[in-house]
Amino acid sequence: MTKVFIDGQAGTTGLKLAERLQARSDLQLIQIDEAARKDKQARRQCIAEADIAFFCLPDAAAIEAAELAEDTDTVLIDASTAHRTVPGWAYGFPELSDTFKNNIINGQHIAVPGCHASGFNAIVYPLITCGLLPKDYPIVCYSVTGYTGGGKSMIAEYEDPNRNTELDAPRQYALTQQHKHLKEMVAVNGLERTPVFAPIVADFPRGMVVSVPLFAGLLTRRATVSDVRDIFKKHYDQKPFVKVREAREGGMIGANNFAGRDDMEIEVGGNDERILVTARFDNLGKGASGAAVQCMNLVLGTDETMGLNLGE
Predict the structure, then answer these.
(1) At what angle do helices 59-68 and 40-49 cross, to 10 degrees?
(2) 223-241 exposure pattern, b = at least 16 Cβ within 10 A, e = fewer
(3) How far apart are CA 222 and CA 82, in angstroms?
(4) What integer is the mean pLDDT of 21-43?
(5) Are 169 and 213 a contacting pair, CB within 8 Å?
(6) In the predicted model, what is the mean pLDDT of residues 266-291?
(7) Mean residue pLDDT across the chain
(8) Is residue 10 scored above 90 in pLDDT?
(9) Collapsing DSSP states into helix, strand and coil, what is residue 264?
(10) What is the pLDDT of residues 72-114, one digit of tens each?
């Protein structure tokens, strides 16, 4: 039986991850005494005892945890921002390419992607690798997310019955264009120009829609909506966690419709002059603990979808 430890189980991602792992009969979850959860020696012992250790921690604490794991054979899966662009750490989005997937399977150190970055990379990486999107393209990205992505403090803020009425409407943030996910968005895709990124948090718990608009005339070659959709269909063929939807006639895309799911849906719309690509998923699923479990399954050589909820 595989022994697993979660360092940071009290946080939003840690709690959801613990719930997922406790339901698995093939795993044994190592528990740390509540009074010792910040004790370095106790954490070091739990990490060393585990076959796989998850870090659901702030960046500084995740860096410290990785140092505590030195000289162990434990596989580390870090859900923080700390190691996503650090050499030697596999980036945990296996659908991007066989190289990404093999790095996860064979890696001892794995970084779970950020939620916004997951949608962005799912859209941009296939377009970059097929040569349609130039690396210096002036990318603009909008992302609407549920408030659970902000962790315990934001959840408490939104669920307070006496909350500020400002929270009733969607709120754009990261106004200085220094969002922490930008670094991995640039690095994973090899971009030569940092995108304009506009994240928005709204009054619903879970789910997100990431959107990247494209001017057809600025691409490396002429491409229609259908052409772009075919690129995604080819790239994500036989990849159960990412589905490419046919064209939507009118209507709207709800950011909360994938709540509770661990897969992602990509849709290509717009027209042949202005193309809009969207990725819809759960910020706590494919954008957090679901992605972490998927990485663990790959490391263990089990069914990649084991313990995860994939829709039709």
Answers:
(1) 60
(2) bebebbbebbeebbeebeb
(3) 39
(4) 91
(5) no
(6) 95
(7) 95
(8) no
(9) strand
(10) 999 999 999 999 999 999 999 999 999 999 999 999 999 999 9
Domain 115-286 has CATH 3.30.360.10: yes
Average pLDDT over residues 274-296: 96
What three-state secondary structure class fits 259?
A: coil
Cβ(132)–Cβ(277) below 8 Å: no
The full set of domain ranges for the chain reads 2-112+287-300, 115-286
Q: With cut-offs at 50, 70 and 90, classify the pLDDT of residue 250.
A: confident
Q: Do domains 2-112+287-300 and 115-286 have the same CATH topology?
A: no
Percentage above 90 pLDDT, the chain? 91
Confidence band (pLDDT; 50, 70, 90) for 9?
Answer: confident
Alpha-carbon distance of 176 to 210, in angstroms, equals 19
Q: Round to whole Å and give the CA distance between 256 and 10.
A: 24
Residue 23, SS3?
A: coil
Gap between the Cα atoms of 273 and 280, Å rounded = 23
Residue bearing tokens 């998850």: 54
CATH among 3.10.20.70, 3.60.21.10, 3.40.50.720, 3.30.310.260 for 2-112+287-300: 3.40.50.720
**71 phi-psi bin (left φ>0, alpha ψ -120 to 50, beta other):** left
- C-alpha distance across the termini of the chain, in Å: 31
Assess contact for 132 and 220: CB atoms under 8 A. yes
Question: Which residues does 36 contact at the CB level (< 8 Å), separation at least 6?
Answer: 42, 43
For the stretch 114-125, what's the b/e string if a residue is b when 16 or more beta carbons lie within 10 angstroms of its beta carbon?
bbbbbbbbbbbb
Is residue 255 a contact partner of residue 170, using CB atoms and an 8 Å limit?
no
Kindly state the helix (H) or strand (E) to which residue 30 belongs, with its residue range. strand 27-30
Catalytic positions are: 115
Is the per-residue pLDDT at 248 higher than 80?
Answer: no
DSSP H helices, the chain, are 12-22, 40-49, 59-68, 98-106, 115-129, 151-159, 182-189, 225-235, 290-300
